[in-house]
From TrEMBL:
Coiled coil: none annotated. The keyword Membrane applies. The chain crosses the membrane at residues 69-90, 96-115, 189-209. It comes from the Bacteria. This is TIGR02302 family protein.
Amino acid sequence: MIQRPSDKTPHQAKTAVSNSRSSPVSPPVSRPVSPPVSRPVSRPVSPRVLRRAVWLTHLGLICETLWRAFWPLFSVLMAGMAFVFLGGLSSGSTPVLWSSVGLAAVAAIAALAYARPRLFWPRQSDAVARVDAALPGQPLAALRDQQATGTEDPATVALWQAHRARMERRAAAATPQSPDLSLTARDPYALRFVAAVALMVALLFGSLWHTRDLVELARGGAGQGLSGPTWEGWVEPPRHTGLPALYLNDQPEGALSLPENSRITLRFYGEVGALQLAQTLTLADDADPSAPEQAFTAVQGGALQILGPNGRAWQVSLIEDRAPSVQSEGSSEVAADGSLTLPFSAQDDYGVTGGVIRIELDLAAIDRRYGLTIDPEPRAALELPLPLSLTGDRRAFTEALIDDFSEHPWANLPVRFTFVAEDAAGQLSDPALLQAPLGARRFFDPVAAALIEQRRDLLWSRQNGRRIAQVLRTMGHYPSELFGEAGHYLQLRAILSKLEAALDSGGLDLTTQDQLAEAIWTLAMQFEEGEVGDALERMRQAQERLSQAMRDGATDEEIARLMQELRDATQDYMRQLSRQAAEEAEDLDPGEQSENSMTLSQSDLQAMMDRIQELMEQGRMAEAEQALREFQQMMENMRVTQGQGGQGNSPGQQAMEGLADTLRDQQDLSDDSFRDLQQQFNPQGQPNGQQGQQQGQQQGQNGQGQDGQGENGQGQEGQGQQEGTQQGQGSGPGDLARRQQALRNQLSDQQGNMPLAGPEGEALGDALDRAGRAMDGAEQALRDGEFGDAIDQQSEAMEALRDGMRALGEALADQQQNQPGGQQDGNPGRMGNALDPLGRSRNGQFGDYLGDDMLNGGELRRRAWDLLEELRRRAGERDRSEQERDYLKRLLDNF
């Protein structure tokens, strides 16, 4: 049994011990006689940590008691101070003021009456109890206990000492306890917070000078001192400056700088006429200088004086609000998708709020040739809002106009850009002029470029309608040479028919002009981008979203999701390119491919995107964004890629080349059949043999003209002569049927050597079976002399061959994507030595390894020649800067 010393007397303790020993619950047992031991004396433990914890807790109890008792009084004091600081004692009559003071006194007395029964001084024992209650087992109370029994037993004494040691260790961990200051139950309406908010508002918008009213109230007895004259004044700068209002009573006398057009308000209290205003800040002042309230706008510097008791004087100088300024920064840039980037910078004292960019046609700088010789139709100037900085300071910023003017009638024509900025005060900057072409998309396909030129002439003036109709009719004269698909030719015929119908009916109107321009644009885009337009647009959007996410600091999960979208869009785009390559494979000449060209496989593209994602995961966003821009530039410049024959080609590539050869031969045979069909209806025309011979010689001359005496030129010439001779000598139905039979046998051999199996092989086999059946039908029609039926069957055979090549191309692309490693079939190791770990060239560009695989040989030579001529033309222009001309000359030296 444990007994506290304060609970029982020693006599009672002895009785308790004896009672415990004679208890019937525990039978007596014989114990060895132990030597007497000294009774331990229990002393209260009060280490330094314990004393500090108790002292701080005691202090917190005092604060808790005072706060709970006097919170109504504190609230009354805060409300009274807010009333004084806001000028409540200066704006009312004497009875009202004394009534307010009396109400405050009654509220204070009531608060004191509320505090009286709730006020008691905490004792130190209360602090000890609160600290002890926060400790496990209440060790402080346990240390005050004394051993009541077993004081003669060594085991019991040892146990007691161990218990005390454990309690002492727990007591050493005592910490101060925070007071409970919550008043939610005592103040359910939060009146204390209302008073605190009122005091904060008074400190922000009032004045400490109003404390003098309390002194005047005490001196005047009945409020006589409050009837003296006083004043208040404020200065409100124009809102667009963003500057805070000034309290004139707090401004010292002397010089005072204010923004132009600041609004000044003054109020006079007390006897009318005791205070007067004298100022020269306005141009004309007809107001009464002693009026109780006056307001005016400072439009010029001058003096501001308050005459009378406690008056004050200032010499005011105005800060001028200057007009904004704007200027262009550098030259414009045109991206691969045709978007124009035009940088500029703008400045203003308090920030630019708007502006406009005006674009007008610069007739004096236009080369007035061809469809531009006549005067253009009147067209309103373009007015675009000036782009403003979305983040940061608009007082000085650099931005850029980014827009796509590819479909505008002035696309790629010289224009004048006029920049004008505006501030919040409505002031306009001086116009900044820039003369430059209206950058827009460039078309590299010759047919697309010709169509865009006719569209420009149509929008230039409707008087060009006859000339445009002649050009379009000329383009459709030989459809087989310009149009790879019948749909494109039909679209051109529809445009031509609509144009000629409008011209014959009295001329073009504006609606028809716009409709024709839209139709020509759509047709040109089909020639330029083929079937990859949708996939390319999805890839562009994915790249733009990922770039924007990196700039905005998106989370890792968002960036990973956008990166996966880019991977999917890129794969779709590559499949479209492979499909288009298969359809246009008959126009490719393996001999014209450069032996030094480099190719990029799907695994190479995946490695590039993996590197971009790795940079983003490492937090190197600047490098990742630069790599993404290079990757985007490479994909934008990519057109059509198709693996060519040569050493090391895979069986799939060889099969693709074989089908391309068969399709080309079938096209030639179909042309010969068509010429024989024409001969049936025009027996007086030129003999087929002579026509074929002349065509062959013309083709040979074209080949020689392109390459001179080089190997390619001679090869093309010989091929052209052979083809012409062949066509001239064998043009009868029997010869055409034998050639058709040879093509059928060639297709059968190729069909037996196809390397694919499974679903891809079934789709390819079905297409080739259809092609074989169509060839058989064409052969029989040729033997029967039915050239019309033969041409129909040959068209079906070519369509089936294209379907087969498309299926083969998709299968090869999927296989290539699933191949391990980063090497493309037929080009092992060619990427490894030429690219850095990011997949870029040693000079930092992805696109350097696209090489000649992007274009066929004739197209590549034509573009190279056009580029060389353009460099020579620019290098010879004297109006260009010396630095630019030196750069162009260095480029020409490399060629």
